[in-house]
Amino acid sequence: MIVVIDYGMGNLHSVRKALEVVGANARVSSRAKDILKADKIVFPGVGSFGEAMKELNKRKLVRPIKDAINEGKPFLGLCLGLQLLFERSEEAPGVKGLGILKGEVKKFKFAQYAIRNTQYALKVPHMGWNNIAYSGQRIACLPDRQAYREKILTGVPRGAYMYFVHSYYVKPKEKRVVLTTTSYGRDFVSGVCRDNVYAFQFHPEKSQELGLRILKNFVHL
Question: Annotated catalytic, 20?
């Protein structure tokens, strides 16, 4: 059973339906006991960092999430579900994230630039299709987790396009957790991996065939 964590924020049912399309037995739940009993966990989210952490604390889900990760359950964070894994965010000063990964969440800030005397500025949020590049770093997976790292992107070619909607990006302290990067005015981290934890800034459930391939790979880890 794969549990999609419900903390009141996110496109939960579209994620569940996408998982079912690729063959998963999935359910949406906000109950701690379901999270702890799950075989695998998906942690989606849409909205603000501060409000999300408020809801996780209100529903007493922080400890079950951490316990499930520490037990080695395969864990997949999506969009805000990636950002919440880190220690803090510029979006909500003073609010502590889950702290599963070291680092912070930064806001896109772009100055105008000129091409042939015409002023341009990249829009925030970063919205739409963009490609992902595999990191050249050695990924932070234990030796017995190397198969996990290799399988999550099986069948997803370098330069594959995924669907993004976000104004903030993660900045890990440890480069070795970086799985994929994407360019939007600057290179930013669009995917991470550490042992049994994966997370992506893009929306696999909205990324057509290749996004569904990532979800299928996760289901079959």
Answer: no
Tokens standing for residue 50: 């501060």
55 is catalytic: no
- Distance between CA atoms of 40 and 23, rounded to whole angstroms? 14
CB neighbours of 98 closer than 8 A, spacing ≥ 6? 53, 56, 62, 65, 66, 84, 85, 86
Name the active-site residue from 141, 166, 193, 205. 205
- Which of 13, 71, 79, 150 does the annotation list as catalytic? 79
Residue-wise pLDDT tens digits, 127-176: 999 999 987 655 555 444 554 556 899 999 999 999 999 999 999 999 99
Tell me which residue has tokens 């930013």: 188
The three-state secondary structure class of 185 is coil
Tell me the whole-structure pTM to 2 decimals. Answer: 0.91
Report the topology of domain 2-219.
Rossmann fold (3.40.50)
CA distance 214 to 58: 31
126 a catalytic residue: no
Name the residue ranges covered by the structural domains of the chain.
2-219
Looking at residue 140, what DSSP letter applies? B
